[in-house]
Amino acid sequence: MKPRDIVVELLSQLGSSREAREYLRKFSSKESSQFAVIKVGGEVLQNDLSELASAIGFLHHVGLFPIVLHGAGTQLNQALADAGIQSEKIEGVRVTTPQVMSVVRPVIYQQNLRLVEALERLGIRARSLQHGIFNCEFEDQQKFGLVGRVANVDLASIRSTIAAGSLPIVTCLGETSAGQVLNVNADVAAAALVMNIQPQKIIFLSPTGGLLNEENEVISAINLETDYARLLNSGWVHSGMRLKLIQIAEMLEQLPPSSSVSITSASNLTRELFTHRGAGTLIRRGEGFSNETEITGLRQSELKSLIEVCFQRRLNNDWFSEVDLESLIWAGSGRAAAVIDKGFHGIPYMNKFAVTPTAQGEGLGAALWEQISARYPQLYWRSRADNPVNSWYNRQADFRIRAGDWQVFGYGIDDFNRIEALVQNAQSRKEYWTEKLPSEGAIS
Ligand code: ARG
Q: Which of 276, 358, 360 to mutate to test the pocket of ligand 1 (most atoms within 8 A of CB)?
């Protein structure tokens, strides 16, 4: 086995090896420098250094070269306090007097070297890039002191580091053209780097391992197209997260639609990157949905192949003429769709719900579900008893009834007799599958 095969084998422990291979291929498909920018906060350097080094080292082993950019906020607060220096923040920006700067520089250098050394201890080649990347102007010298606004980014040292087979470990210090060192907010520096690199992934490593919802659970995925306004308007998205979300949306706006942001922890990074489900919060520009009341020509063949890919079976063409279409809800990319049938006694029946595995990881299934439930206050559907999606369906449904080989689900219907009739109706529907497609494992 070649080292890369061994690693793929290891990765497959996280999900299926097919999944790991798919992401590895995807992340290797562009120029090496365009895989990822990873922003590491001071807190992660403080508490998770060895997890961090092994997760980054792992990427290097599989031939990926993330650009790592770090801050040192936590260590700086400590060092300033130890030195008895008062430092003030205005609008979230640390006012950097020359006295503050005398602490900032050594602390940042020190944190940079800690990470480089942790990587080297693992036998991973890494280079410390402390200067010469962010060409800056003063943000507002009167107000903030030695704080920089990035005027342009010089990628030469990053490129040559990667070309030499090393990982670039970048600080968030900038300089003016006259050589004055300026302090740049790490999120601002990360955004500037991202604009210039146009990476496939932007990764924020944080101790929480993702953005948290009202119940303090990690939100798995955010599809900005359908979720952004709702999140910003909801009371529980507090100021820090709000700001982060706005910055991320602005950043993604300027990248290709396939680029995505992941917020995760050092220990979950590998799982986040190499499985569909991930472990953290994935944010994409995402896509909208259209509601269509007929399925004609091109759409028919697109829908057919989507359904076949998702169910791994061939669909008989008669199905199209048998559907009593209420609406087709279709995702912009064509990777998710729901076919809603007029149903029985005026209650719509979900005839097909199809989401590709990658689109599931992006949260497109959940986004599609929101469209459905917003549009249809009552719904029923069926699913094979052994369908792995059933536990998810169960969470969306308020009844689930076993009927022979089927589970029938539904919501919004109170009358028990009505439910019984719907269950019978669902159970008696014809199937339109022909042969099974070769199973997952058989596709290499
Ligand atoms: N591995 C894929 C990626 O990094 C999908 C990750 C899905 N993550 C999630 N938190 N839903 O782009």
A: 276
CB 23 less than 6 A from any atom of ligand 1: yes
| Residue 442 within any structural domain of the chain | no
Encode pLDDT of 204-260 as tens digits.
Answer: 999 999 999 989 999 999 999 999 999 999 888 877 788 889 999 999 999 999 999
Ligand 1, atom 1: closest residue by C-alpha:
273
Binding site membership of 221 for ligand 1 (Cβ less than 6 Å)? yes
Total domains in the fold of the chain: 2
Range of the domain at 227: 3-284
Write the CB contacts of 25 (distance below 8 Å, at least 6 apart in sequence).
none
Lowest mean pLDDT, pick from 3-7, 76-80, 107-111, 173-177: 3-7
Is pTM, for the whole model, over 0.70? yes
Is any ligand 1 atom within 6 A of the Cβ of residue 281? yes
Closest-CA residue, ligand 1 atom 3, reads 273
Residues 160 and 243 in one domain: yes
107 is a domain residue: yes
Distance 179 CA to ligand 1 centre (A): 40
Region for 337 from its dihedrals, namely left if φ exceeds 0, alpha if ψ lies in -120 to 50, beta otherwise: beta
170 or 90, greater pLDDT = 170
Domain end among 284, 318, 339:
284
pLDDT at 142 over 50: yes
Could you list the beta-strand ranges (E) of 27-159.
36-40, 67-70, 89-90, 93-94, 126-129, 134-138, 148-153
CATH code, domain carrying 166: 3.40.1160.10
Q: For residues 57 and 99, state if they share a domain.
A: yes
Query: Interior CA angle at 220 toward 217 and 225, to 5°?
Result: 125
Does the structure show a pLDDT above 90 at 443?
A: no
19 lines ligand 1 (CB under 6 A): no
The answer to the question of residue 217 being in a domain is yes
